[in-house]
# Entry
Amino acid sequence: MPTVREATFELFRAHGMTTIFGNPGSTELPMLAEFPDDFTYVLGLQELPVMGMADGFAQATGRPTHVNLHTAPGVGNAVGGIFNAQANKSPLVITAGQQVRPHITIEANLTNRDAVMGPQPYVKWSHEPPRAQEVPGALARAIHLASLPPRGPVFVSIPMDDWGAEADEDRTVNALGRAVRGRAGVDPKALADLADRLQSAANPVLIAGPDIDASGGWDAAIALAERQRLPVWASPATGGSRIGFPESHPQFLGVLPPAIGPLSQTLADHDLLLVIGSSVFPYYPYIPGPLLPEGASLVAITSDPGEAARAPMGEAIVGDVAGALASLVALVGESDRPAPESRPAPGDPGRNDPITGSEAMAALADAWPADGIAVLESPSSTLALRNRLRLSRPGSYYFGASGGLGFGISAAVGVQLAQPGRPVVCVLGEGSAQYGITALWTAVAYKAPVTFLVLRNDEYGILKWFATLEQVAGAPGLELPALDTAAVARGYGVPSVDANSREELTVALGEAIAADDGPRLVQARVAAGMWFE
Ligand SMILES: Cc1ncc(C[n+]2csc(CCOP(=O)(O)OP(=O)(O)O)c2C)c(N)n1
# Structure
C-alpha cells in the first residue's frame, strides 16, 4: 500500500494541483519529503503573501490550489489572506502541519491547539482528520468543497506523523476516483419570467459583477446587453475581485459607487436592475439613502446562496451565472430600445508636478499591452485605473474584494505564474505594498516578470479621505514619510527605477513590461489626493 503522503500527492495530481504555495516549518517537512519531480513548490517568505500568491494563482487558473502553512503561527499570519480568499471566492485548499499525534493531548511545543478554530469563520470547512488514513479522503472532500459554488477556502490540519503511515486502500482508491461537479442549473420558470420582465421593462440596466468572469460568462453577458440594448454598470469596485464586462464597450457606463444612497441615485430612472454575479451590494462606506431607485425592482443572479439570502432588497435566482446568462440570451429577442448613450473617453488629466494619480494612470494606459493583466491595490487610484485602462478582455483584472491589504503585491506573482504568456502589471500604493513586500523575493526567485508600479504619495491617502467623510479630525498614523519602496525592492533583487514625469513613467513602464526575465519595479511620486478619473 502507498503511504498517506504518496496517496495524497496522487490525489493532488489527479486534480491538477501540482503547484503548492507554502512556507515550511519542521511540522511540514514530512509532507515535503521525497518531493515529486512533477510538482512545484513556490516558496513565500511569510504566510500572508503565500496566501495572496495562491489566491491569484487559483483565480487565474480557475483551479483549486494547495497552500501549506506552518501550524498555529503560520495559520495566524495567514488569516488576513484567508479573509481575502473568501471574499474573492478563491478555491484554496489550505493545509497546516500539526504536532505528532502522541504530542497533541499533552500540548507539546508547536501543538496547534483546537486547530480547526484558527481559520474560522472564513473557511467553508475546517477539519483535522481523526486518524492518518482519513487524510487523503479529507483532502478530497476539501478539494471538492473549495471548488463548489460559492468557491472559497477550506482548511485541513494534518499531524506530521500521518504522512508516513500506510494508507487505507479502500478509502484512498475511492477518494481518488471521485469527481464532483457543481454547476447548478437555474430554475427555468424563474428565468423565463425574468426574460419576460426584461423585455417588457421600460428602462432596464445590467449590473455586472465578478462572477461573470469567474464563471466564464463574459461573452454571454455581452450578448445579453447587446440584444436588450442594456446600459451596463460594474458592481462597486469595493467588492469587484474581477471585472464582469468589457469596460471599453459602448454600452458600459462606469463603476457604481459603493454606498447605498449614491448607488441608487446613480441608477435613478431605471425600472429593472438586473444584477449578475455580484452581491447586492458590497457597500462601503455607509451613506444611507433608499436601497432602490423609486419604482425600480431588482433581480440578482448569483451562484452563492448566502449572497442571495443576505441581500437587503430585491429578488434573487441562485444557480450557475454563465449558464443562466446563456439561457437568458436564448430567451430574449433583439430589443428595439435605443442603444444607451456612450460615456466619453477619459479626458486629458493635465500636467502637474508631482503628477496626479490620474496622470500616472494615463501613463500606464499609454504603455498598456493589449493582453495585459492588471492587479490593483492602490486605494486612492482605483477608479482612475478603471476609468483610464478600460480593460476589456476576460481574466484581465484582479482586486482584493475584502480590502485586506497585502493581496495585490502577492496575487500579482501568483497570477503571473498562472499566466506566463500575459504581461502582469501590479499597481500599488506604497503603503499597501509593504503588507506583502516579501512577495518580491518570490517573483525574483521564480522569474515571474511582473511589472510593479508603486505610487508614492507619502501617506495613507484613502484614509485621509475617509477621515474627512467620517468627520474625524486629528487622527495619527496617516503619514508615510521617507518610505522608498524602490530601494527596498532592490534589496529583494528587483531592478527598480524612479520615474516622476508622465513621459518618464510611460517609458519606464514600457521597458519594465517588455522585460521577461523577472520582475521590474517602477516607483512614481504622485500628489496626495484621491483620483477618480
Ligand atoms: C490588512 C489591512 N490593514 C489596514 C488596512 C487599512 N487601510 C486601508 S487603505 C490603507 C492605506 C493604503 O495606503 P497606500 O497603499 O499608500 O494607498 P493610498 O491610499 O495612499 O492610495 C490602509 C492602511 C487594510 N485595508 N488592510
